[in-house]
Amino acid sequence: MLGADRRALSQDTAEDVPAAIGRASLAASPQAAHNDRDAMLARGEKTMIRNPIPWPGGARCACAITFDMDADSLIHISRPKDGHDRLYPISMGRYGPTVAVPRILDTYRRLGLKQSFFIPAWCIEQYPDAVDAILAGGHEIGHHGLIHEDPVETRGAAQRAAFETALDIHRRRTGKAPRGYRAPVYNVTQQVIDLLIEHGFSYDSSLMADDIPYRMTTPAGEVWEAPVHWGTDDWPPFAHYAEIDYLMPVRAPSDGLRAFWEEFDAQYEAGGFWVGIWHPFLTGRLARWRQVERWLEETLRTKKVWFAPLEDIIAHVRKLTLEGSYVPRTEQLPYYTGSQTG
Asked: Which CATH number is 62-300's, of 3.40.50.2300, 3.20.20.370, 1.10.4030.10, 3.90.1010.10?
C-alpha cells in the first residue's frame, strides 16, 4: 500500500533519515529541499512563520501525533475517596490502553510511523501490556507525572517526590530515562522546568509561546519546548467527563477532527510544526480513529511531511542549532519572580 519505503526509513534516526516522510518527498535530496525552501521564502510564499526550521528529507512540515495515555488515572486523582468504585469512568479510561492503543499501534505499524506517548507512571505499572507494545513498536514514552497530579497543586517537596518517583518507574520499566515531559493539564511551573534541567531532559511539551519548537533558558541551564495549544487537543471536541466537571457537547468525528486538519493545513503552508495532543480513550474510539487513519494515508501519499517522535524532532532542531545553521527563538525563564498584583 504506502508502506515499504517509509517502513525502511523509520528504522533510522533523526540525524540520518527521518522516521517517516510522505511519499511526495522521498525523491528529494536534502540540498534540493533547502534550495526549494530558500526559493519559497524569497518569493514570499505564505511565510507567516518568521524563522521556519529546515526539516530533513525535503519535508515541508514536521508532524507528531502525541497520545497522553492517562487511562483511569484521572478518576483516581480527581476523586481520591471513591474513585476506585466509580466503574463508568474507570471503564472509559481503560478503553485507552486495552482497546485503543492496540488499534493505534496497528495503524502505525502498517504505515511505518514512530510516534510519542506520554504516560503517567502509575499507568505504566498498571497497564504493562500496552507499554510493552508501545516499546516494541519503537515509539517514545515521555514523562507525564506520577498519577496525573497537577503541578500547580503539587509544589515543593511533594512535586519533587512525585516527579522523581515517576522518573524511577520510567527507568525501571522502560530501561531508560525519558527525554521528554508533558505536564498534566499543561500546568508547568518554574519548579518543573528546574527539575527537567536538573535531570537532563531534552524537552518539554506543555507550553504555548510559539508555533514551532523553541529554546528556553534559565540560570540553571536550558531545555527545549515542543509547543502545544488547545486547537490541536482532543479534549475540547470529544471529552464529556462529569466527574471532573468537564461537560462539553461531544462533536461528531468529522466535526471535531476538522479543526485539527485545518491547523495542519496552516502549518504545512507555512513550513511549520504540527502536533496533535490526543488521548487514546477519546481519539482512539472507532469512528474517530477510522477518520484519522484515512487522513494519515492521504497525507503521507500527497504531502511532504515528516512524521517523527518529538524526541527526534527536537534532536534535529538542536543539531541544526549546534551546527550554526539555524537560530531558534529563545524564551528566558523565569517569566516572573513574584506576584505582579502586589
From this structure: 3.20.20.370
* pTM score of the predicted model: 0.90
Three-state SS annotation for the chain: CCHHHHHHHCCCCCCCCCCEECHHHCCCCHHHHHHHHHHHHHCCCCCCCCCCCCCHHHCCEEEEEEEECCCCHHHHHHCCCCHHHCHHHHHHHHHHHHHHHHHHHHHHHHHCCCCEEEECHHHHHHCHHHHHHHHHCCCEEEECCCCCCCCCCCCHHHHHHHHHHHHHHHHHHHCCCCCEECCHHHCCCHHHHHHHHHCCCCEECCCCCCCCCEEEEECCEEEEECCCCHHHECHHHHCEEHHHCEECCCCCHHHHHHHHHHHHHHHHHHCCEEEEEECHHHHCCHHHHHHHHHHHHHHHHHCCEEECCHHHHHHHHHHHHHHCCCCCCEEECCCCCCCCCC
Split at pLDDT 50, 70, 90, the class of 248 is confident
Return the pLDDT at 43: 59
Q: What are the pLDDT digits (tens) for 89-138?
A: 999 999 999 999 999 999 999 999 999 999 999 999 999 999 999 999 99
The phi and psi torsions of 45 (rounded to 5 degrees) equal -85, 100
185-190's contacts with Cβ under 8 Å and 24+ in sequence apart are 185/150, 186/228, 187/150, 187/151, 187/152, 188/151, 189/151, 189/152, 189/155, 189/159, 190/218, 190/333, 190/334
Amino acid code (one letter) for 119: I
Domain boundaries, the chain: 62-300
